[in-house]
Amino acid sequence: MHTVVLETSGTTAEEVLAVARGTARVELSPAALEAVAAARGFVDDLAAKPEPVYGVSTGFGALAVRHISPELRAQLQRNIVRSHAAGMGPRVEREVVRALLFLRLKTVASGRTGVRPEVARTMAEVLNAGITPVVHEYGSLGCSGDLAPLSHCALTLLGEGEASGPDGTVRPAAELLAEHAITPVELREKEGLALLNGTDGMLGMLLMACADLARLITSADVAAALTLEALLGTDSVLAAELHAIRPHPGQAASAANMRAVLDGSGLTGHHQDDAPRVQDAYSVRCAPQVAGAVRDTLDHARTVADRELAAAVDNPVVLPDGRVESNGNFHGAPVGYVLDFLAIAAADLGSIAERRTDRLLDKNRSHGLPPFLARDAGVDSGLMIAQYTQAALVSELKRLAVPASADSIPSSAMQEDHVSMGWSAARKLRTAVDNLSRIVAVESYAALRAVELRAAEGPVPAPASRAVLAAAREAGVGGAGGDRFLSPDLAAAEAFVRDGRLVAAAESVTGPLA
């Protein structure tokens, strides 16, 4: 079993995914534990002094004006966890919660929070035991961190609230901790606040969205190539020299992917004699420009995510010289912006894919394909309603592209008077990515049927296209023929795209695609 060792310097996207989506165990390096202990020493020193220090000996937010006496400080830390665990709505997915808890532990391991080593060890033990706190959809404004979601995680560390075990059954957290011989923590000065004050939820969801979108962009390139081939389009627009004169790296990568898929095709460029084309429609001709822009947007988002992975987000923070300083690093704007940017890019990638699908189904624009790719149009409706479903998904993607980060609602008696809404941006991006996978699946399904119909007339599709077609049929994605219950075919196509088999089939001929 893979083990992720947390150092003071942070972690990587791959390590987050290994813990959140996989079975990787978590350990703290000796250097990290030493840094955690040293920072705790500074906090203990400050706690012993009469001067108030935010988070150590004061209340929180708008209540920070009250100095808390030593005998009430443990209660203060418990109370902030209990009162802030105020989420509502559906449970958040297991992978998101595991990312949330792991990324908070990443910041604790930096030695900038003042949490004791035993608290950090307990966090790792909970992750390694497969215990997942129950976290709810609503409760974070993306400023002062993802407060409510992180509070529900912290509540589990106290042995309170609910969590699910490795079997997924929701039970009292105290029972699960006892079963795994994990001692609930007794919080001391600053520790409750330190467990709540980070951008960990929105960052975890950003990292997972980046991983999923990377696969979907390549899938969209393959689907666009199949559509170009089925429409007898020209691959001359994919020439490397054309893309070199507009040097966006993502555009060049997408064009190269499409060229590789179409290499050796007997269909491309065979315009119909009765309808000569000088050039293809924008949705076909500009496919690399749009998918490439999505690639470049994704690269920017990854840059922001990498910076955040190297950050220690808390307030106040413990500095190397022992000072404990208030700051605003918990504000989720950097993450929220790129989450919204990715939602915009995903919407446009879905939009152009739907336009290509519609072109495949319209006999007036498909250059000889049967209406709706039906066997007996009129008796059969073919893929008419598959495009309706795709259009509905695209329409929702456009709604999801409205930026959450442009909104702000003041809270905490106007102390927290500007917030990022980054958690909301992350939640809607997850929906957008799911929808995009379905949209690409519909285009792939239609394009494969169209290529199959062309091949039945004699011309030979590209070797990569034939490999994708064979793999799709093996995966249960039905071929051309009379009308049948279509939903299972589309579900199979979605799985074929989502789990990477579409790209893998093309790569069996082309080699690695970007």
UniProtKB/TrEMBL annotation:
One of its GO terms (cellular component) is cytoplasm. There is a cross-link at residues 143-145 (5-imidazolinone (Ala-Gly)). The keyword Cytoplasm applies. Contains an active site 4-methylidene-imidazol-5-one (MIO), which is formed autocatalytically by cyclization and dehydration of residues Cys-Ser-Gly. It catalyses: L-histidine = trans-urocanate + NH4(+). It is an enzyme of class 4 (lyase). Pathway: Amino-acid degradation; L-histidine degradation into L-glutamate; N-formimidoyl-L-glutamate from L-histidine: step 1/3. Keywords: Cytoplasm, Histidine metabolism, Lyase. GO terms for molecular function: histidine ammonia-lyase activity; phenylalanine ammonia-lyase activity. It comes from the Bacteria. Its EC number is 4.3.1.3. It is found in: Cytoplasm. The keyword Cell inner membrane does not apply. The modification 2,3-didehydroalanine (Ser) is found at residue 144. Belongs to the PAL/histidase family. HAMAP family: His_ammonia_lyase. This is Histidine ammonia-lyase. It comes from Streptomyces oceani.
